[in-house]
Amino acid sequence: MSAVSEKPTSKGETPVSLPNRQWWRNDGATLVRLLIVVGLIAGSFWYLASRAASPTVTGTSSCDARPRSFEPGATPAASSIHTIKQAYNCILDTYPTALDHRKLLQHAMSGMVNYLVQQHQDQRSAVLPALAGDRQQDWQAFEQTYATMTTHHSLNQQKLVAAAITEMVDGLHDNHAHYLPALPEDSQPGPQVGLGIRLSIYHDQFADALPPLYIQSIDPGSPAEQAGLRPGDTIVTVNGLPPFLNQKPVPEVMNQIFSLAPVQLQVQHPGSDEIISVHLVPASYPEIPFVSTRMLPGNILYIRLTAFQRGAADQIRSAVQQAGGTQLKGLVLDLRGNGGGK
Fold first, then answer.
1. Closest-CA residue to 125 (of 145, 95, 104)
2. Which helix (H) or strand (E) is 143 found in, with range?
3. Distance from chain centroid for Cα 54
4. Cys staple from 163: which of 110, 111, 245, 334, with CB 3.0 to 4.6 Å?
5. Which residues pair with 215 in a beta bridge?
6. Could you tell me which residues belong to the region Disordered (predicted)?
């Protein structure tokens, strides 16, 4: 099994998306959603391979399970400890490398102790007993300690949960692992607004930019596509001004491309000496999926990931499973144009 990542080509710069795009999604109103992007694809294969062997991974993924906080009649304490357990199992079941569950529990307890300190509460009940090394048994010890804490103190359950999970994730020392609270119930993905151009440089990294300024990709259905612009087009002027002077970037000019005001561009198609003028007006256009897949010859799965956003891990894992999982001969992960995310 091999995994190949296609890096940005053509001058090696990473493209950027225009602002005001609504990337976040509501994945079943789940209270806990962890997106672990380091080793995302390796983790997907590891997850599939270990799923059959591990008795702790059965049925629905612990990351996808419905929290009890959404169940009628659930008490705050029961909902809270279940939420921490969901995060605990999610990390252990899906992280790309093996983890010591005891360290996760110790970090979670540390987070709760810190919360007690901030609230000027007595911490004597927040003492985790010696852990035996058995995942289920040690969780029960943690759960009992949690019950003792919540019995002796009147605490904000949501903040206590957030403190525990945040410290548990921070304990991974992985700057691509984050705890993301749920989106509001009425949060829905919306249309993208802008020109639909992804450029060859980040808008906040003009100081390191080198000419020329060119278009890396065009969003389907966007004003840029409707105007006939294509990937590889060089932007010669922006509202009559060059984006570079004496090989130095001019931020004031480039920023006009990223605003939501109409813009006049002079562009040059690859292989052509002709310079054409295009007037673009920012508009809304259909949202494009940040995960798309297709099968390549030789039983190789191609995955295009345009952003590391909420739901990406689940979508990629599902795509790998549907395509045959460990029976695949290889996988291509296309990250061109991926500006990051959480």
1. 145
2. helix 135-152
3. 26
4. 111
5. 199
6. 56-76
Taking only the tens place, the pLDDT of each residue in 199-256 is: 887 656 667 788 999 998 888 899 999 999 999 999 999 999 999 999 888 888 888 8
How far is 232 from 308, CA to CA, in rounded Å? 24
| Predicted structure pTM score | 0.50
Q: 237 - beta bridge partners?
A: 266
Which structure tokens are listed for 290?
Answer: 């940040």
265 CA to centre of own chain: 33
Residue 175 near residue 5, CB atoms below 8 Å: no
What local confidence, expressed as pLDDT, does residue 206 receive? 67
Return d(Cα 69, Cα 227) in angstroms, integer.
Answer: 49
Counting DSSP H helices and E strands in the chain, the numbers are 8, 15
Whether residue 18 contacts residue 258, with contact meaning beta carbons closer than 8 Å, is answered with: yes
pLDDT in the model for residue 11: 39
